Each structure stands twice: as C-alpha cells, then as structure tokens.
Amino acid sequence: YTISESQPYQENFDSYTSGFGNFPDCWSFINASDINYTYPLAYVNASTDYAVNLNCLYFRSSYTTPIYAVLPNISNNIEDLVLSFVYRNEGTGGSNGTLSVGVMTDPSDAATFTEVYSCAQTTTRTPITINNFGTNTGVQYIAFKYIGAGTFNNYYLGIDNVVVSQRSSEKEILTFSLPEATQPTVIDAEN
Q1: Burial of 102 by CB count in 10 Å (0-12 exposed, 13-18 middle, 19+ buried)?
Q2: Which alpha helices (H) appear in the chain, and where do they start and end?
Q3: Listed residue (52, 58, 81, 61) closest to 142, CA to CA
Q4: CA neighbor of 110 nearest in space, from 40, 29, 164
Q5: What integer best gives the mean pLDDT of the chain?
Q6: What does the alpha-carbon distance between residue 57 and residue 50 come to, in Å, rounded to a whole number?
Q7: Which of the two residues, 33 and 191, has the higher pLDDT score?
Q8: How many CB atoms neighbour CB 170 within 10 A?
Q9: SS3 for 134?
Q10: Quick one: pLDDT at residue 44?
Q11: Per-residue pLDDT at 147 exceeds 70
C-alpha cells in the first residue's frame, strides 16, 4: 500500500460483519486463536462502548501470549508516516491488558516487533497520534500488540478509526496567515 498526502490508509471496521472470525483480510494476525473462547482473540465487534461508530477491532487477552494485529504492507518510508487511532480498555489495573504500537519487518514473525509507543490503560475511548516511528531501515509494517496481565484471560480492548497518513510537508505546516492587529479601544473614565 502506498500512502500519499491525498490518499491515507483508513480503516474504521464498519464495512465488516461483526462477530468471531471476522476481521480485515488485508491485516495479518500473530497468535490469534481460531477457536472461540481460546485466547488471545481478535475480531470485528459491534460495541457502543468501544467502537466510535458501528464496529471496532476487538481483542480478548491472554495473560501469557501476546496477540499482534499487523496493518498491510506500507511502501513509504516509515519515518514519514503518522498513525492515529482510538482505543479503549475494559478496565484498568489487575489483569487488564496493555496495548503497544510498534513496527515490524516481517508480518508473520513476532520477533521482528519493535515497540515505539505503549498506551496507558483507559476506560474511555481515547484518541492517539503517533508521528515518530524512528528511522527503522527496512520496516514496512505497523502493528498493534496486546497482552493481558495478572493470571486471567479474556480482558477486552477495542481499537477503531485507524488512519496512516503521510506527514505534511514543512511548507504546509508553516503556511498560515494572521489577522491584522488592531488597537484596542481605550475608554477614558473622566470624559
């Protein structure tokens, strides 16, 4: 996938059917169970608590095995990209999981995952923007990693409105205009 300033990669999961076994075909998943109630799991889910609109990508944690959701191959230089998304945990503390964002050179090998950002646990839909993926040569994949904590499985996390865009050029960032300055009206209290 080639990303340009006019053509970002966008996924809000609303075009997929909600339910176990449903997820974006162009994404790769590592360690995702294909048996319902065997963890970790990932699937598209309709949830008003987690989704911004209709659906979100829903994770159910394993406390021993991380799950990786890998976006499609991106041909751009990774350092020129910005990732934004919304996420929400089921709860905070205890066995609730941790979401990390990273980069990978191989979408089928978890050992190539390099974390670039760790998301704080939150019980509200929280927008995140990551605009520094470093200068990782040969990296062509952005990935989400989710793993539980404690000693229990099946803690939920949802992500939604995933957008990968090209960082704006410096010229566009610095081009703006200010309104003309005016002198404030002075009121003389004696007259």
Answers
A1: buried
A2: 170-174
A3: 81
A4: 29
A5: 87
A6: 9
A7: 33
A8: 8
A9: coil
A10: 96
A11: yes
